[in-house]
Amino acid sequence: MIKTLASSALALAMVSTPALAQSVAPDWSGPYVGIFGGYNQSNDDGDENLGFDRNLDGRYGDQVSTALGANAFSPGFCGGMATSTAPGTGCRDDNDGVEAGVRAGYDMQFGNFVVGALAEYSVNNVQDSVTGFSTTPAFYTFTRELESTAAARLKLGYAYGPALIYGTGGYAYGKFENKFRTSNQANSFTETSEGDDGDGWQAGGGVEYALGRGLTVNGEYLYTSLDVESPVIRVGNNGTTPVANPFISAPNTTGTDMIRSNGKFGTHMFRIGMNYRF
Question: Could you report the per-residue pLDDT of 131-148, keeping only the tens digit for each?
Fold first, then answer.
């Protein structure tokens, strides 16, 4: 719903600006503060899988093998949450989410061109998951949820009548919550390290429209890309685990470290908002 409203706001502003070009043009120079809300869509990575470190040397390229030497994860992987212990039943797609935030910025106008800088903070709830399936059968799901985002961006725009059409890009930081789920009850699972934040970049564009008395409305699209480390899950012996268990079999009976392979988190953000310009 919010995604549709944001797209409609952008389209309406674009088609309306020629007719409004003769209106009194505002001066975009000066500071402003604003609020916004929107829809976040996770950028699914269908090629993501899990990485395993059988000898605990910090390198995640090992195979977890059955007692007969076969790949214990031969059933495969999926980019989402498991719906059962068998990959043939499929995975549930990642959950999209919403966001709400505040911003502050400063613009300078030179003729029809506008340059500026802004800072933003928003709360989010978009998720990104990956699942591996073992021959047991069992599933192993890593989920990261983006909880909040902070960004500092530059802006370059073109003023046309009461509208400002702009592109924007810059630095972004995200705070995450990591979760791990499994149907395997034969092993112990201990988180030995956690990556709960990430940084990267944002880029996009939008249209801002002046209502008068310092108030403006805008529609905006942003793509956010963040680098975030996967938590490390140590798969070990829960006290009753058979010695032939693939995760603790000889020569390394201590256990196996497991991570998700993709260190990137991407999300499409569709926003509508309102600013007050001083």
Answer: 999 999 999 999 999 999
Q: Which two tokens stand for residue 155?
A: 């802006």
Chain-centroid distance of CA 144 in Å reads: 8
b (16+ CB within 10 A) / e for 47-64: ebbbbbbbeeeeebebeb
Rounded Cα–Cα distance for residues 223 and 245 (Å): 43
Q: What is the pTM for the complete model shown?
A: 0.85
Pick the closest to residue 62 from 192, 251, 265, 240 (CA basis). Answer: 251
Joined together, the tokens standing for residue 28 give 């975009």
The predicted structure's pLDDT at residue 24: 64
Compute how many other C-beta atoms are within 10 angstroms of the C-beta atom of residue 19: 9
| C-alpha–C-alpha distance, residues 84 and 255, integer Å | 25
